[in-house]
Amino acid sequence: MRMGEGADRKDLDRELEAFIKDFQSVSRQFVRRQLTWFRSDPVFRWVQAADRAKAVEELEEAIGKEEQEFLRMYDEEEERRKRREERGKRIGDKLKGRKEKVGRERGGE
């Protein structure tokens, strides 16, 4: 070992140790931010997995509710689409009737 090599090695070891501690700290902070974000987002469901049977039951219930809600929303959107189509057809029929009336009036003059 050359002179000064031991001191350099110790400095590197301390730097590496400091880096690892900083990295661990920043990683934990990042995880906490992610958990806060996920918990506040209603898209995600939190289930306690300690009791597996209960967790499966909760998930099945949530999936069933979400499916029912999706189908309800889909049906409502389909009804809105049909009403828009019917309204558009009525407006089109009125415009067609007016066009024919104007044509008769002009032709009858």
Automatic annotation (TrEMBL):
It is found in: Plastid, Chloroplast. Residues 76-109 are annotated as: Disordered. GO terms for cellular component: chloroplast. Keywords: Coiled coil. Residues 49-76 form a coiled coil. The keyword Iron-sulfur does not apply. Its main location: plastid. Residues 85-109 have a biased composition (Basic and acidic residues). It comes from the Eukaryota. InterPro entries: P-loop_NTPase. This is tRNA dimethylallyltransferase.
